[in-house]
Amino acid sequence: MKKTIYLDNQATTPLAPEVFEAMVPLLKDNFGNPHSAHKLGRQAAAIVEAAREQVEALLPAKGKLVFTGSATEAINLGFGVVRKQLEDGRNKIIVLETEHAAVRDTAISYRELGFEVCLLPVKEDGILFLEELASKIDHETALVAAMLVNNEIGVIQPIEAIVELAHSQGALMLCDAVQGYGRMTMPKNVDMIALSGHKIYGPKGIGALWMKKELEIPTLIHGGRQEMGVRSGTLSPALCAGLGKAAMLCHDYMDRDLEHIEKLSHSAQELFSDWVVNGSMAQRYPGNLNIRKDGLDVARLISTVRDVAFSAGSACASGSGRPSHVLTALGLEPAQVKSSIRLGFGRYNNMDDIEQAANLINIAAKAQSQ
Predict the structure, then answer these.
(1) Fold (CATH) for 17-248
(2) Where does the pLDDT of residue 132 fall: very low under 50, low under 70, confident under 90, or very high at 90 and above?
(3) Which residues contact 182 (CB under 8 A, 6 or more apart)?
(4) Is 316 a known active-site residue?
(5) What's the CATH number of domain 5-14+253-369, 3.40.1280.10, 3.10.20.740, 3.90.1150.10, 3.40.50.300?
(6) pLDDT tens for residues 234-268?
(7) Of these residues, 175, 240, 250, 316, which one is catalytic?
């Protein structure tokens, strides 16, 4: 069977072999409920807590880490802090126009609770206007939310500057670090960080919300009061261990991974030199290359180039039929949005992958223009 070249590492990453090996015993023999008081339960609980420490090792300070079923759940959990803020007279939420739907749509849903939701525009390169944020944020602002690395175009936002502006007015700051956690140093002094297992060569079905120690989060899921009383439900020791092992590998391989991915990215940029890059190249994670060729039918391209797994944007919105709100926010015309592709490079890609994929994609793109 012919190998599919996988270049969609923003959508999900392959499971690291070491992660698989760490999870197997917990799926097979060590099946105890981590919330049970007997020996098997205590052993499972110890595995969960070891995983929690491994995940926290990549975070900015000692805080509270709540395991969740996904980063989307973690984000929804984090947004709950604004309910208490509303009682204190803070009724404004500020998020970037280019946020992942998990943040953007959650923020918009809070309008029904009486919040003013401000969608902050970005520049043509995808980076926010700090001056615009400074003008919008005030003493009525409850929460500012911004991604560290954009999932569609890979641009890196100045999170620490955003945090400083938020805190200057007494607002809290939530960072969606799904695309940056495990790949780069986490920003300091943020109040909450959301992350996901399957974006760092870990398992699907687990994420986490980290928060400062003093922060109190309202209960999102009621029941047995597991996970510090805010997120009920029996934890999977296998998933927790998988996330913990993946985080540990990222800690150990971060520099090596970055050097490897930078080389792949440099080669890809040369091979796609006649395409236009969407988003900043100066403030960008190199594992993400979002490019366009005017007049291209991307849906047809993806269908034609079957031996390469790449995307037209966010996997989470691919079935919605809506044009990318991220590319639209950059000022691209609808036709330009529809002629854009995203290539995502990861730990397990090699130079042959990049060269073969570029050859197949460029041949198919050229055939469309003839």
Answers:
(1) Aspartate Aminotransferase; domain 2 (3.40.640)
(2) very high
(3) 58, 195, 199, 200, 246, 247, 250, 251, 254
(4) yes
(5) 3.90.1150.10
(6) 899 999 999 999 999 999 999 999 999 999 999 99
(7) 316
